[in-house]
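wait is this the right file?? whatever heres the structure
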């Protein structure tokens, strides 16, 4: 089956692992990469513009593409990438035999529940798929990495760049809470 057959999120998701024998393992190997200890001032979000299911191999492909671009440019410690959706939905396929005499070997649509073949994550409009945290000089490279990652996904996406307000150690928590809304609205 092709990936486009699983793109539309129709019906109830099939997620209960304890009832499924032989369920496939997710191909996504890491969800957080880069320097996880540093707080970077800029965040670039890759947001979904459509409601779809994304297969686990598409998520892994987008993660690898974005990670490769940023690792070549800044090494292992100049950024942080987080992949947000987790592929918990089990995809099934009723495999059909397409040879001569197949009508004697299988039953067609009778008992056509299917066997587990892959995993997917359901994504809603505006949900964050990938977030990249970088310094000021890494914003353009992070945008390019997100753009390449979006080509691996089965829907239209958009980018949002957010700058975190600088926090001085002498400021209290109340002062930070008061300053943050003004920085967001642009007043």
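ok assuming it is, sequence goes like this
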């Amino acid at each position: 089956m092709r990936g486009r057959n699983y793109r539309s999120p129709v019906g109830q998701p099939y997620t209960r692992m304890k009832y499924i024998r032989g369920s496939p393992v997710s191909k996504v190997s890491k969800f957080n990469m880069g320097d996880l200890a540093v707080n970077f001032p800029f965040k670039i979000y890759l947001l979904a513009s459509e409601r779809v299911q994304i297969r686990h191999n598409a998520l892994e492909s987008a993660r690898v593409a974005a990670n490769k671009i940023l690792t070549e440019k800044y090494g292992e410690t100049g950024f942080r990438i987080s992949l947000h959706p987790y592929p918990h939905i089990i995809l099934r396929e009723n495999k059909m035999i397409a040879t001569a005499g197949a009508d004697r070997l299988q039953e067609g649509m009778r008992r056509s529940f299917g066997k587990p073949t892959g995993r997917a994550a359901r994504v809603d409009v505006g949900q964050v798929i990938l977030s990249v945290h970088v310094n000021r000089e890494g914003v353009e490279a992070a945008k390019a990495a997100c753009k390449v990652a979006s080509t691996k996904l089965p829907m239209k996406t958009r980018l949002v760049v957010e700058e975190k307000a600088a926090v001085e150690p002498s400021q209290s928590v109340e002062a930070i809470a008061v300053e943050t809304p003004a920085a967001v609205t642009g007043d």
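The longest strand covers residues 115-123. so i think its the right one actually
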